Amino acid sequence: MAKVTEVDARSPAAMAGLKVGDELKAINGHEIHDVLDLIFYSYEPSFIIDVERGGKRMGLRVKKQTGEPLGVEFESYLIDQPRSCKNKCVFCFIDQMPPGMRDTLYFKDDDARLSFLQGNYVTLTNLDDSDIKRIVDMRISPINVSVHTTNPELRVKMLNNRFAGEKLKYLKTLSNGGVEINAQIVLCPGYNDRDELSRTLDDLAALGGVVSCSIVPVGLSKYRDGLAKLDPVTKEDALDIIERVDAVGKKCLETRGLRTFYCSDEIFLLAEKPLPDVDYYEDFPQLENGVGMAALFVDEFSARLDELSGDEKIEPFTLATGTLFYPILVKLIDLLRAKWHNIDAEVVAIKNRFFGESITVAGLVTGGDLIDQLRGRVDGRVLILPSAMLRAGEDVFLDDVSVGDVRRELKPSDVRTNSSGAELLDAILGI
């Protein structure tokens, strides 16, 4: 139900007379089922919206700039209910979560609308021909797709969904319809690696609509009782993955002018190979998927460092991070010491005992592990954390421990966060 809960003052909706409590029914005769209908049909500078108010239907004329938002909010962001995942993927991290955490952490979304609007990845398994036609007709692009493999039988096995293989046909339909696709492959040794990986890469490279593809290693927590047996990506695996991905990437550079296929930072670090420089990642098409994040972080830190004189005062500080990013931060602090010779700095790798020590990314470090491993080590020092450790827009970790709890337990002089290389240096300087 598209019931209006808020109307922005002086917005096109307010100027047209739309009110809180109105139920939006249609725009220029097109029924409004969800947020995509709203965005698509309200794009033009002039149209009629049909609303129901107090049991009566009425039409309101809206005039605005082309593409300008209508200026309303509804009971839910999507207007409709989000579509949940119908798969039982062998690698699903949500199935590896411990009990007793907040409910939102157990919800599996597989919603193409959220793929377009928020960058979520979808498997296409809960879409039908009419959904795909709508995506093409509305030019809902780009869409982010969890492909994993283009072998239909293997995809059925990996996603534990009997429709998973046949839904691969939608990749070609979307590509032919002018929809750009950002693809993702979660690499599971023994399933979709080696020759299966090469097959998938070649198949995706043949689709003109695939504008980027990331290959990320499977994440395995200690909570896998009753789940399929999976092995972690080893150094040998990672070296093989990089070789295969780079081979396809080089071909794409020659034929398309873009690399298109990228290994995540974690694969390079597992392989113990130097990270590529920032030019390798072109326009960073899958930064939020951990592709090129480390290279960009280092580049931003170095550029910010060059701007400083070296005379700025730096308080004693401790950087906390996951074990994956620890070697990179150590090298950055070495660069810092070359300019500030007498700084009191420490980098600490927080082992993930909550999920299991095979989980190495900073974004899954909990407040409990942070407190336990830093107790007695940061009293009176500045504590600097990556923003990824905290829930977006809040001061709360995955386990609901708060930054306030960290302050009370560890007694740092200050707690600062950062989300980029430049922000890290500013946090160190207290800017």
Tell me the CATH topology of the largest domain: pyruvate-formate lyase- activating enzyme
Which stretches are poorly predicted, pLDDT < 50 over at least 5 residues?
A: none
Q: Summarize model confidence as the mean pLDDT.
A: 94
**CATH architecture heading of the largest domain:** Alpha-Beta Horseshoe
User: What CATH first level of the largest domain would be assigned?
Assistant: Alpha Beta
Tell me the number of structural domains. 3
What is the overall number of helices? 14
What is the strand content? 15-25%
Q: What is the topology, as strand order, of the major beta sheet?
A: 3-2-4-5
**Radius of gyration from CA coordinates:** 24 Å
Q: Cα distance, first to last residue?
A: 47 Å
The major beta sheet can be summarized as: 4 strands, antiparallel
Helix content: 25-40%
Order of helices and strands: EHEEHEEEHHEHHEHEHEHHEHEHEHEH
Give the overall form: globular
What does this structure look like?
With 431 residues, the chain is α/β, with parallel strands linked by helices. The chain contains 14 helices and 14 strands. Helix 10 runs parallel beside helix 11, helix 10 packs across helix 14 and helix 12 runs parallel beside helix 13. The two termini are 47 Å apart. The mean pLDDT is 94.
Topology (SSEs and partners):
Layout: E1 4-7, H1 12-16, E2 23-27, E3 30-31, H2 35-41, E4 46-53, E5 56-63, E6 72-74, H3 112-118, H4 129-137, E7 143-146, H5 152-159, H6 169-176, E8 181-187, H7 194-205, E9 210-217, H8 235-255, E10 261-263, H9 265-270, H10 293-306, E11 317-322, H11 326-339, E12 345-350, H12 367-374, E13 382-386, H13 403-410, E14 414-418, H14 421-429
Parallel strand pairs: 7-8, 8-9, 9-10, 11-12, 11-13, 13-14
Antiparallel strand pairs: 1-6, 2-3, 2-4, 4-5
Helix pairs in contact: 7-8, 10-11, 10-14, 12-13
